[in-house]
Design a protein that fits this description.
about 750 residues; 5 domains; six-stranded antiparallel sheet; eight-stranded mixed barrel; Beta-Lactamase; alpha+beta; 22 helices
Length: about 750
């Protein structure tokens, strides 16, 4: 039995309690040199140290033996194991010591081999030397043959009976590990080569499998076992295939035997990067690429086949994620424009083959989304888009596809099948789903949607055509008042072409300065005097004559041309006001100019930056509630205008998104009541109350109030009775060219008074 390798305590510390018990050290805690008791103790210690050195020599021989060695109790329990056993078992000693040798993991529990080992161990425990040749299963699930010898150790009076087990691996009939001469050297070299190859197989990062010429598996390295969900369990080769399934690269189609890479290699095929999916029972699937071929002997005789498998699961997941990201919107996770186009193309091809399966395409745009984004910030805008995506998905059918096209635009492909009637029903559900208020930053916010609808047509031959027509119908819904669904009609395409042509002509008009300003008077209602004008742009079209803003402003807004056009209007109005201020009877007039929200977003220092304009005294800016935005550029512009004393008017008051909060947040000096509140007067009690409330509120905030759209004397009298001092409308005058406007003002002179003030520079 090899001595214990644990460190012993100091010998004196062990012996002293014993000597005290015998009365030999009583009163002698530190005996002087030469004391007999001290000498006896030192002699005993020297003897023990010699025994320890001898034990270490035998321990080294035990541990580094080329054989498997184990120490058993008489009943077969494992007491000690040498390094060879632990290395072969690939398990720590703690997991093996104490177990019966026939219960060890290298032979299946309850097998005939285990019974043979049990019988041999118990015979040796009874004092009989026993020899045994038995099969065992290596940790890599290979079958090996062991020659074992069970030797009972001489019984000592102070120790129980123990059994020494020595074992060797039988290889091709040769069992001796102690051959001499050249044969011994060759055997040792062969063993070293075998150990190196086994170590390489176990530590390589690819799975290696091999079989003999009969197709029996002979190699299944560590990585292969992990791939197939076998781990370190001692599973016999015959049971390996019960622990996993194999599939084609799609992960759905079972891999038949003729397609298994190792089988193909066994048939003589050179396999290169063949993908397959391994599905271990109860574990995640693995995708591998297998390469290999047949094994042949020196004379060409078939020996079997070998295949290496490289795990590409992580790569496949990354590729799948990249494909998903390329085809889906990052914010909402919905299909993007590219994926929608792919699906629509397949749907159109199917419709060409079978007109009995029509489809439809919807384009949706959120009404007033920009105002929500500006008022609450981009993060809240993203939350609105996420909630919108969820509502749209819930409202459509399972066979339909909701996609995000960008910004606040969405599209829906209605399929399987979908005619005009079904498409309208889906659109109604979408509209209803959007009527519920959105909860944003603790507030209930209502956002509607405009929907354009295009149904399948044999005339659609290109992918972009149904998308274009649905988009055209959506903008028709917006122009018709928003929050509605419009079905595309061929006439809309002609209108869209006309708008494109109008945009082109607008660009030419800006270069050639084809625009002019007309001025609508603003009246002091109690006195009937003209106090100023609102400047309104007109397009002097070379072929179509003088065009009002309704013919081109919407296109200018959508194309971004409103920025250079607005800059021109501002400069021209400033020039005209300075000219009038040079005449004594017109010096007290003001001129107001409508400002687009896009003009507030222009970066500082660019040619169309409105802050580069020199504002004369009396030049007012009209801003609608919906154009005010909390963007850095807009806030910069508003603060700069306030510092320069440029008077601001809030136009179309009551129709926008921010309502009275705009008058509180920005330096507004005048409210212009929208014509929709004035036209029902004087008979509508509700509208009368609204106008009276606005006038009262403005008086408390020290703001001027202008009533817009006055067309009758009764309306003028009604707003005057409600306390409104100023008004404009067709009752007084339509917009006039500059010369006619000046004549109008002279006929109703203001004098030196300036009721609106203003000290712009």
């Amino acid at each position: 039995m090899p001595p214990s390798s644990r460190a012993e305590p100091d010998l004196l510390a062990v012996l002293e309690p014993l000597l005290q018990a015998a009365g030999l050290t009583e009163g002698h805690r530190a005996a002087p040199d030469g004391d007999p008791r001290r000498n006896a103790v030192e002699a005993a210690q020297a003897a023990l140290m010699g025994a320890r050195r001898e034990r270490d020599v035998w321990r080294d021989a035990w541990q580094h033996s080329g054989e498997f060695r184990a120490l058993l109790s008489a009943d077969g329990a494992l007491l000690d194991l040498n390094t060879q056993v632990l290395r072969a078992a690939r398990q720590p000693a703690e997991r093996l010591l104490g177990r019966r040798v026939w219960e060890a993991p290298w032979w299946p529990s309850g097998s005939a081999e285990a019974q043979q080992v049990q019988q041999a161990a118990l015979q040796a425990g009874a004092g009989e030397i026993t020899r045994l040749t038995v099969r065992a299963v290596s940790p890599d699930a290979r079958l090996i043959t062991l020659d074992l010898k069970f030797t009972p150790l001489p019984r000592r009076a102070w120790a129980a009976q123990q059994v020494l087990v020595e074992g060797r691996v039988r290889r091709h009939g040769a069992v001796s590990l102690t051959s001499t001469g050249s044969d011994g050297e060759a055997l040792r070299e062969a063993n070293l080569t075998r150990v190196a190859l086994e170590s390489l197989l176990e530590n390589v990062q690819d799975g290696i499998v091999a079989c003999d010429s009969a197709g029996n598996l002979t190699v299944f390295n560590r990585v292969s076992r992990e791939m197939h969900g076998l781990g370190s369990a001692p599973v016999p080769p015959s049971e390996w295939s019960r622990h996993y399934d194999l599939y084609e690269p799609d992960g759905v189609t079972p891999l038949v035997q003729a397609r298994i890479p190792l089988f193909r290699a066994l048939q003589g095929e050179q396999v290169q990067d063949v993908e397959m999916v391994i599905a271990p029972r109860g574990l995640p699937r693995r995708t591998v690429r297998a390469s290999g071929g047949p094994l042949t002997g020196p004379d060409g005789e078939p020996l079997g086949a070998v295949v290496a498998m490289h795990d590409v699961t992580a790569q496949k997941h990354a590729e799948s994620r990249l494909r998903h990201d390329a085809l889906h919107d990052r914010l909402t996770g919905l299909p993007n424009r590219a994926l929608l186009a792919s699906l629509l193309e397949k749907t159109m091809r199917r419709f060409e083959r079978d007109p009995g399966h029509p489809y439809a395409v919807m384009f949706l745009d959120l009404d007033d989304f920009k105002n929500v984004n500006d008022a609450y910030g981009h993060l809240t805008g993203d939350r609105l888009l996420l909630e919108t995506a969820a509502r749209l998905k819930d409202a459509v059918r399972r066979t339909d596809t909701v996609a995000r096209m960008g910004g606040d635009e969405f599209a829906v492909l209605l399929d399987a099948p979908c005619d005009e009637l079904n498409a309208r029903r889906v659109a109604e559900r979408l509209q209803r789903s959007m009527l519920r208020p959105f909860r944003l930053q603790g507030q209930d916010v209502r956002v509607t949607t405009s929907i354009g609808l295009a149904v399948a047509s044999r005339g659609y031959t290109r992918l972009e055509e149904p998308l274009r027509d649905a988009d055209t119908a959506m903008y028709a819904a917006k122009r018709a008042g928003r929050n509605r669904t419009v079905l595309f009609e061929p006439s809309m395409h002609e209108q869209a072409l006309a708008r494109v042509d109008t945009e082109r002509q607008l660009r030419e008009a800006l270069r050639e300065e084809q625009f002019t300003l007309h001025y609508q008077p603003v009246m002091h209602l109690p006195s009937g005097r003209c106090v100023g004008f609102e400047a309104l742009v007109r397009w002097q079209h070379p072929q179509r004559g003088l065009l009002a803003p309704g013919a081109f402003l919407d296109i200018a807004e959508r194309s971004g041309l409103i920025v250079p056009l607005g800059a021109w209007v501002l400069r021209e109005a400033a020039r005209q006001l300075r000219e009038w201020q040079g005449e004594a009877d017109l010096a007290g007039l003001f001129v107001s100019v409508n400002l687009s929200g896009q003009q507030l977003q222009v970066p500082a220092g660019t040619p169309d930056d409105l802050l580069t304009v020199s504002f004369p005294d009396g030049l007012h800016l009209e801003i609608t509630e919906t154009s005010l935005a909390d963007t850095p550029e807009a806030l910069r512009a508003m603060r700069a205008l306030e510092r320069r004393g440029v008077p601001l008017m809030l136009d179309d008051f009551g129709t926008g998104f921010a309502s009275l909060s705009a008058a509180q947040r920005f330096p507004v000096g005048t409210l212009k009541i929208d014509r929709s509140f004035v036209s029902p007067l004087p008979g509508d009690a509700r509208q009368t109350a609204i106008v009276a409330s606005v006038v009262t509120l403005a008086r408390h905030m020290q703001l001027n109030v202008v009533a817009e759209g006055i067309e009758t004397a009764e309306q003028a009298q009604a707003v005057t009775d409600l306390g409104c001092t100023f008004g404009q409308g067709f009752l007084f005058s339509r917009p006039l060219p500059a010369a006619a406007a000046a004549a109008f003002a002279r006929s109703r002179p203001l004098g030196t008074a300036r009721p609106f003030g203003g000290t712009g520079t």
